[in-house]
Write a structure and sequence with these properties.
- The chain has a 5-stranded mixed sheet with strand order 4-3-2-1-5.
- The longest helix has about 55 residues.
- The chain is elongated.
- It is built from 3 helices and 5 strands, in the order ββββαβαα.
């Protein structure tokens, strides 16, 4: 069973690319053997030129051919496929990463300070309860000491 991809095949001259949209075996080289040409794409024109054979692309998608990310975007923009292309996660800049790390550290410090404050409040609440019986015992012990 062939695993087919709908992908771009580079044509054109050096530094001036244009592409053919082809159906090819997944393991075939980029500019190697293909099954069928289903369109053309020229990113160098303004606006970029995209010509697609809609009926053939729909046929190959129904047969199970998987488009590459670029071709997926092209056929989605044309309304040939309902499945939206996934958005690639952009790498955060160093400044954003640093700001996020500082915010995370501040949140951890605030949580730690809050936990320490709660622990201190709990200890303060326990301390008067312990001190009160100890004071009574100390006052009782003092009269005995003076009696001797």
């Amino acid at each position: 069973m062939l695993l087919l991809r709908i992908r771009l095949r580079r044509t054109g001259r050096k530094k001036l690319p244009s592409y053919r949209v082809v159906v090819a075996d997944q393991n075939a080289p980029r500019d190697g053997a293909f099954v069928e040409i289903v369109g053309h794409y020229n990113p160098r024109t303004e606006p970029r030129t995209v010509e697609l054979k809609e009926d053939r692309i729909k046929h190959w998608l129904s047969v199970g051919a998987q488009p590459t990310e670029t071709v997926h975007r092209l056929i989605y923009e044309r309304g040939l496929w309902d499945v939206a292309p996934r958005k690639l996660a952009s790498k955060p800049s160093k400044a954003e990463a640093r700001a996020e790390a500082e915010a995370r550290a501040k949140a951890e410090a605030d949580a730690k300070a809050k936990a320490e404050a709660e622990a201190a409040a709990a200890a303060a609440a326990e301390a008067p309860a312990e001190d009160a019986p100890a004071d009574d015992a100390a006052t009782e012990a003092e009269p005995e000491a003076t009696a001797e």
